[in-house]
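Moderator note: this is an archived Q&A kept for reference. The question asked for a predicted structure of one protein chain; the sequence and the answer are reproduced below.
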Amino acid sequence: MRILIAVGLSLVLSSIAWAGSCPTLIRQIDTQLESAQLDSSTRQKIVALRNEGEAMHQQGKHQQSVQTLNEALELFRTAGAD
């Protein structure tokens, strides 16, 4: 019984951690978009991933949101726009 409670508690806490990461990543993307020198195609991809990640966050799909938002941030790195 204790094991079930521990597993349940860890799932709840990890869900909360994922949820808190999403807004931070969205703000980070928005900040980088303001000053980054990107070609229009890369900028469009980043904005699309950012919007998709925000939508997932609002739907409660926090792990998928974090993965999508990190993809957007990776595009900044590969484009050399840190």
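Archived answer notes: The first helix runs from residue 2 to 35.
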